[in-house]
Design a protein that fits this description.
The chain is an alpha/beta fold. The protein is built from seven helices and seven strands. The protein has helices at 20-31, 43-52, 66-80, 106-132, 166-186, 207-215, 229-236; strands at 11-15, 35-39, 56-59, 85-88, 138-143, 191-198, 247-250. Strands 3-2-1-4-5-6-7 form a seven-stranded parallel sheet, sandwiched between helices. The termini are far apart. The structure holds nicotinamide-adenine-dinucleotide. Belongs to the short-chain dehydrogenases/reductases (SDR) family.
Amino acid sequence: MTDCLGLSDHVSVVTGGAGLIGSSISRGLADCGATVVIADPSDAGSELADQLGDHVHHIDTDVTDPNAVELLFETTVKEFGRIDSLVNAAYPRNDQYGAKFEDVTFEGWNENVSLHLGSYFYTSKCAALKMQSQPEGGSIVNFGSIYGIEAPDFTVYDGTSMTSPVEYSAIKAGVINLTRYLASYLGSDGVRANTISPGGVFDDQNEQFVRQYEDQTPMGRMAMPEDIVGPVLFLVSDLSTFVTGQDIAVDGGWTIS
Ligand SMILES: NC(=O)c1ccc[n+]([C@@H]2O[C@H](COP(=O)([O-])OP(=O)(O)OC[C@H]3O[C@@H](n4cnc5c(N)ncnc54)[C@H](O)[C@@H]3O)[C@@H](O)[C@H]2O)c1
């Protein structure tokens, strides 16, 4: 364990902390000595907490349930004394999510927007209320996406059954501007809020898709989960004490071309 960034007294809640990106973030925070609460309903959450050591804890949480969210932050402050950062890396969606544009229903759209954008709002709100009452404030990091910044490039899905869901573009653009709102509203209380917008993360996707995606990316590859960790550590730590309301694209240059 290395206190590389002054995080040894830091308490962080990571929603979706057992996922593809979230598990790397939980590990990165734990490596820097932070107390980490993995807020994730999957069994992988408790397995990861066991693996990462005594200062990593799993709280089985469905972030789309407001009562569970309130309990998450009550428990965190009760057990660990404070909350310095919230990292929202959960990816809640219903079973219709991922349908092509023509097949998305009004109800399906509403539910997915509510599950994802709604839970990012409510976790941010509940964390902010705790952080406002601490002299040191706190830091909120929400996960956006390159598709919250610009329109999808559908040519990368040519020849595959994959698509970029229409809800995703609305949700992620919403997350980026929700985060700006939080930064503006909470800035005077010392609570910072920023977005990280990753490009596509490699997860053994269809080979044709990967090739086509890489061809569109200045750095010539998809992101690896580990690429996302450094910017998160920067945003939760005192390296970024005057950075708020920003969206950092971690995309190998995708959004500049
Ligand atoms: N993977 C990518 O290519 C990519 C690219 C850009 C942005 N993102 C964003 O990064 C974030 C993480 O994505 P990921 O790829 O790691 O997703 P993932 O599906 O691998 O992991 C998501 C995690 O969220 C958890 N989760 C799902 N529903 C939940 C709920 N109701 N309550 C609490 N936790 C819940 C899951 O158990 C899982 O551990 C998301 O916001 C996603 O939109 C991902």
